Structure formats: structure tokens, C-alpha cells
Batch of 4 targets.
Target 1
Amino acid sequence: MVKFCYAEQDEVAAVVDVFTSFNQPSNPTPPEVVDLTGITDEMVSGQRIDPDAVVSFAADANVVIAHHANFDRKLPSAAGRSSSKSTGPVLHKRLSGESTDSTGRG
């Protein structure tokens, strides 16, 4: 996640903070996903995303832009926490121009 300040001229004014974490999937990572992301099973082995850290990072967000918002918003909720105190909208937006079929890869 990237926290940024947004200027009135409809542009990112500054990156304020960055949050990065991995979560070990329940199945091995398919080779095509490794090729696409560079993330290997060894990199995510034993890793878990800390829901409290996610909630803390996003707590002051006015707007959340997410590639896979339906998946991302479930993380804090699954741990029994609210996803954010923010009342702002969540925009599910593909930020790259590429078309990728991610069906069933949640």
C-alpha cells in the first residue's frame, strides 16, 4: 500500500508512507504468477499479513484505491477488525493498462 497526498490539481503531490507485506498462500504459487510478479514460494513461506498493521496504516485514509478491493477489504474483517475508520470511498481500479485474467486467484 502507498499512502500519498493528493493535490487539488488531480495529481499525487507526495508519497507519505509505504506498507509492504506477504501472506503465505494455501497452495503453491503457479509459475506464471512467479513470472509476472517475481514473488516466489520461498519469499512468502511463513509470512502472514498483520491485520492490525493494515488497519493502523489505512486508518486516516480518505480514499482507498485498490487493484483487488474485494480481497483486500476482507483481511481486517476476517480478523474481527474494522477495515478503516475512513468514511471515504473505495475505488476498485486497475492501475496498469494491462489486461490480466485473475479469475480464481484471489
Target 2
Amino acid sequence: MLNLTNVSIKDQLRLMTVILLGLMIAVGSYGIMQFREANVYIHSMYQDRVIALKTLKMVSDVYNVDLVKTVSKVRNKRLSASDAIPILEEGK
């Protein structure tokens, strides 16, 4: 351990300031690195999950709209059941 009895208070304060500044820089650097890792993770999650779900929803919506339109046309007798079967089979 350092013997600080012969060191002036001014020099002790300087030493403590340097040590605290070093610790602050180390903690700040660690925080910045953690933010970067979190940003990479969130970007990956967005690309892998959110965009895929949006695409899946668009496909599902188009399929459901076509299905509902075809069934509605058959119900309103604007399309025969025999003509609707190929359209519904195509949706599978």
C-alpha cells in the first residue's frame, strides 16, 4: 500500500481525482459497449421477427380477402359452387 503520510494534501487530491476520472471513463466505456450490443440485438430481433410477421400478415390478409369474396359470391349466387371450388383450392 502507498504511504501517503509524506505526500501533501494537494497531491493526494490530485491522485484521487485521477483515480476517479479513470473509473468514470471505464464505467462510461463499458456502458457505451453495452448500448451497442443492445442495439445490435434489437436490430436483429426487428429484422428476424417483426418484418417476417408483417409479411405473414399481408399474405394472410390477401388469402382471407379472396376466401371471403369467393364465399360471398357463392352465397349471393353470383358464382356457382362448381366455379368456386377451383378458386378455393388455389388458395390452399
Target 3
Amino acid sequence: MRRTPRRPANPLDAAEALFKPAKKVAPPPAVERRALPNVKEQVSLKLDSDVLAYFQAEGPGWQERINDALRAAAAHAAPVQAQRIDEAIGLSHHRQSFRTMS
């Protein structure tokens, strides 16, 4: 039996062997992950300078105070929308358990 050489003897065959199309491996399908409850998202928000000064005047925690004010405004303006927001972040079952206690 005659052995085949490890390397092609012909330079053209050697070049062709180097440039064979690579096998494309498909990436695994993306797994959709649910958002964690009560996780805050970083956003860029433009506020009037007097509004920002008002919240920053009390010192640290001004971002939380803005968040609380926005949540209260959303709850006051549209209770149904606030309930949807609570459900989206996983707070609805907590509030219902408090309602059943009282």
C-alpha cells in the first residue's frame, strides 16, 4: 500500500487546502431572560435645572427621590398603568398580600 503524503506535493494543492471554506458553526439560540424584579435601569434623562436643583437640595438620594416622585405621579395619573408597572417588576403579589392582611 502506498501512503499519501502528509503535505500535498503540488504547491497549488497546498494553497487550496489552506483556503478551504471553514465550517460555519451556528451560534446557539439566544435565551430570552426575564427582567429581575426591582432592578433599576440606567437611562439618560433631561430635566430642567430648577427641578434637578430641587431634588438635589436635600443631598444624597436625589435619584431615589425622583424615582419615588415619578412613581407617585404615575400611580395618581393612571392606577391601571401603575398596576401594570408593579406586575412587570413583580410587586403586585406583595401588595395583594398586604390587602388581604388588613
Target 4
Amino acid sequence: MHSRREVRERVLQALYAYEVGHDTAEHVIDTVLRPVLKDDREVLRFATQLFLRTINLSEEADRLIADHVKKLGPDAHCADRPAAAAHGHLRIACV
């Protein structure tokens, strides 16, 4: 059995692979999520839904993230845009 934390970590890896590799969502699910989570259908379903929902709401999440980054001001640590890995965390948090 996988913990929700482990599943979220795997979803973050899938989001990174999707963003950097420019593969289809189905390919990322088949190569990143399914091989590790295939033994538990409910966990795989949760991970797949979280992954797809995050992708589908990414434009809205990016707007929210950009608004908050602007509020931090020019001296903020994250400059114009958070790093790709951190961006995935923030997108999941927006979902």
C-alpha cells in the first residue's frame, strides 16, 4: 500500500515528465504512474485523477501563482517564476 505522500511524489514526477518531456498525458501515466502504482487500482485512480486535474487546471493555477509572486515583490526569492519542480508543488496545491 502506498501512502498519499508517496502518491503525490509520484504525481509530481509525472508532472515534471509531462512538462519537460512534452509527452502526452497518457504516455506519462503509462510510463511514470502505472508501473509503480499498478498493484492498487484505487491508488492508481487517485494518482491519475490528481495528475489529469492538475494538467487541466494548470492555466488557472499559473495565474494564481503569478498573482502571488507579484505580491511578493521584486526582492522575492523566486524572481519571475518558481523552478519547475516547485511549480509542480504549487500547481497541485491550487487544485
